[in-house]
Amino acid sequence: MLGLITLSAVLAACSPNASSGLPTGEPINVGAVLSLTGSQASGGQMAKEGYLFCQNWINTSGGIKVQGVGHPINIDMVDDQSRPSIAATVTEQLITQHHSLLLGASNDATAARAAPVAEQHQVPMVSSGASSDAILNNNYHYLFSVLAPDTRQLQGLIDMALSLKPRPQSVSLLFASDALSSEVAYATANYAQASGLNVLYGSSYATGVNDLSAQLGAAAGPGPDLLLEVGHPSESVRTIQQARQMNIQPKLLGFTSGPGDAAFTRQLHKAANYSFGTTQWMPAARNPRGSFLDSYHYALAYQGQFGHLPDDHSAAATAACLTLDAAIEQANSTLPQWVRDSLSVIDMKTFFGEIKFDGRGANMAKPVYVQQVQAGATVLVWPPQIASARPRYPDPGWAKR
């Protein structure tokens, strides 16, 4: 669908207003902590592009307006090598090099070490990668994250399921043994119970395990309507494969990771169909455009600049940058305390969703979206007001996929 519009038409439609003129003030230097190498480099590289897109957009739109003058933004990005200890070190370096405003870090592990440094120096940090409640519950005054918290990761999927017919009555949960997956699983179980679902089973498995048959059998034994897994992409592929072998067929199979990844569908082929996953953003999200682009035109313009579509890491980074831009303009200053106070009361409707922070700096206004593999393609199915397709439910069985 995206390829049906010519690049020239896209760039014309998505270009900032030329009448804004070029910024004439001194540059506003912002530091950004990113995992550009190491185990988290894939997401970090996409976040880097998201920041570059935002930087270009702001600077060709007249810059950040402070005291009636447009200032270009200059984002100085440093690589934490996906190592938390280095994230703390480079955050300290950015601050001592006169960066009084920060973006990043690009994942939970590095954000956990970067945030206390920013807090110590009272430097606002708008993150595109911090979503763990274990970080947010520290109640930092200077950390703000545009992501919905991880403990809400499967809430939208449960809300969606409860809106469907036949209405599910029960759920079983499987989750990887790492701390983050456990955190999400316990929050999901509590939310499911509060929503009226019977939680029939919940158990962890060793992260990266190759054989889930024992846990799958135990989870499916009580006959749950919903079977949900909190884990990692390779585990969701293995779960589908073994559930098919064992003929385990709940009304709905849902995952925190997997559906939405090209590798998931490529490895599973038709078996991937009807599975549900979660995401912070998709190009198909029909959010209001606000003063920026809508999701569709953002994706088109991004593809024109980088040669490929953005993912949720890219979009979160662009959203974080736009949020900092808005906070500076709202404060009419780059003084860290004033920008921090502006961030604490900001309420924005963006292509990424609503951005409004609670007292922890968490974006509780933003839902986590639900996607489903339908006929080999991943489509957005929840929330209904921004969805591009309706959920297909109940699962018709392996033979009919």
SSE map:
Blueprint: H1 7-14, E1 28-34, H2 41-59, E2 64-66, E3 69-71, E4 73-79, H3 84-96, E5 102-104, H4 108-121, E6 125-127, H5 133-136, E7 143-145, H6 155-162, E8 170-176, H7 179-194, E9 198-205, H8 213-220, E10 226-230, H9 233-245, E11 252-255, H10 262-268, E12 276-279, H11 295-306, H12 312-331, H13 336-345, E13 347-350, E14 353-356, E15 369-374, E16 377-382
Parallel strand pairs: 1-4, 1-5, 5-6, 6-7, 8-9, 8-10, 10-11
Antiparallel strand pairs: 2-3, 12-15, 13-14, 15-16
Helix pairs in contact: 1-11, 2-12, 3-4, 12-13
Could you explain the architecture of this structure?
The protein is of the alpha/beta class. It folds into two domains: 2-148 and 283-356, Response regulator (Rossmann fold, 3-Layer(aba) Sandwich), CATH 3.40.50; 152-279 and 368-400, Rossmann fold (3-Layer(aba) Sandwich). Helices cover 38% and strands 19% of the residues. The chain has 13 helices and 16 strands. The protein has helices at residues 7-14, 41-59, 84-96, 108-121, 133-136, 155-162, 179-194, 213-220, 233-245, 262-268, 295-306, 312-331, 336-345; strands spanning 28-34, 64-66, 69-71, 73-79, 102-104, 125-127, 143-145, 170-176, 198-205, 226-230, 252-255, 276-279, 347-350, 353-356, 369-374, 377-382. A five-stranded parallel β-sheet has the order 4-1-5-6-7, with helices on both faces. Strands 9-8-10-11 form a four-stranded parallel β-sheet, with helices on both faces. Strand 15 and strand 16 (377-382) form a beta hairpin. Residues 1-13 have low confidence and may be disordered.
